[in-house]
Each structure stands twice: as C-alpha cells, then as structure tokens.
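Residues determine shape. Next comes a sample protein:
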Amino acid sequence: MSAAIDKFERRADAVGSLVCVGLDPEIERIPERFKSEEFPLFAFNRWIIEQTHSYAASYKPNMAFYEARGTRGLRELELTMEYLRGEHPDVFTICDAKRADIGNTNRGYVASIFDAMGFDAVTLHPYLGREALAPFLERQDKVSIVLCRTSNPGAGELQDLECDGRPLWETVAMRVSSEWNAAGNCMLVVGATYPEEMRRIRAVAPGIPFLVPGVGAQGGDVAAVVAAGLDARGKGLLISSSRAILFSDDPEGAARNLRDEINVAREAAHAAS
C-alpha cells in the first residue's frame, strides 16, 4: 500500500467515514451571497468544506467547473487546495480530471496536478495503456485512479465490449490489479449504478480501493454498493456525492446522513459475512 492510500485509510478511520464530497460548484447554482466575492467558487467551496469536513474522508474537485472560468477558475481551485492543505491536511484529495495522453504530455499533468496543486490522487483513462500512464504510476507517493466501470448510462457502449471472452471493464480491472498496481498506488473508478459488475470487479481486484460515483443524483443504491464492493477488511470503498451535498439546503446534514447510511450498510454486510 502506498503512503497516499494509507493517508486515505487513516482519514477514513479517523472520521468513521467513506464519504467523498465532490467539489463541483456550478456558478449558476451557488447561493447568491457567494457571487459577490472576488473568488466565488472558492468562497463556496470553503463554506462546504467547513460544513462537511467532520464527515468527509476525501474531497474531489472536478476540473471542468474551474477550467470553464479560465484563469479565474484555476485560481479558485488553487485557493481551495491551499485551504485544504492548510486547514485539513489529513484529508485525501482527488483531482477529477480523467487525464490520459502520451508519456511526455502526462509528465506535464503530473507536475501540474501532483506538484503545483498538491493533489493526492488523479482520475485517469486507461485507453493508452500502462506505458503512456507511467509518469503517474511511477509516483509512489500519489494515487492513480483508473476508470474501470463508470456510472453513466452510456458506459457500456465501449466498456461492455468483449475482450478475450470478458467485458473490457473486467479486463481493465484485472490488468490494473495484476500489473499496474505494482507500487500499491492504484484505485479503480467503479460506478454505483452497476453493483453486480462491482461484485465481479471486487473478485478480480480484491485489494484495490474503489472510488464510487453515482449515488445521490445518479440514483445508485448505497446498500447495494457496500454489499458488492467492500474488501475483506470491510474497507476499500470511497463513495462520492456531489450535487446531493453541495446544493442541499443542509450540506452538513446531507454529508452526515450519507456517512451514516454507508456505515449502517457496512454493519449489515459485516453481520451477513
């Protein structure tokens, strides 16, 4: 296990939570009181963090919401990361960027995401293969989170294609587990909307943590996710929610309720095992 995944597990244990809060602040939807700030997305993020940090193992900004605002948005992301490092340095941070390119281009992404902005992890496409992703995988102090079975309705268009008699998503899971995770610094993205596929992925990747989008607004069932995805230690999941927390009338309560729902499901899964 890498130091960065160990950081995630220590944080999860400390707050008794497998919740990842997605910091995806749509400028049109944030409360009016933040829009007069010099950096409104940062002001909103700071408020969300202070509302939810007691229940969050991780925060996951999606780059699209910041890049859409040009240099102002990137500065808001930098301020958010500076705030997290300064006030909550034990929290695991994920850059949801879904990067993938040839090797020398990826070295630029590594420098930007891991070094300049200080993220602990980044989401990555596997399509270009291990050789292209080597600059990420070689960073044993950071986590490479590889897309495997995503939560969107159209995921099966390519992910369900057969490869050596099994769906492509299962081949990705096997390849990451058996080869790419040599440094113990990989995770897999496995959507909450496909719990049966998650169960199969857990079988072929027993020791790899899953980042799980798709609960909340996308309709994934927490109990089904926990039953399908927990590892042998009763861990191995980081369940992400964005809109259902960010735009709730009570973000603190929404984060707490998700933590509690997950933990009830964990207890039920433990009792059934």
User: Anything to note?
Assistant: The chain has one domain: 3-272. The chain has a mean pLDDT of 95. Residues 251-272 form the longest helix (22 residues). The domain at 3-272 is CATH 3.20.20.70 (TIM Barrel).
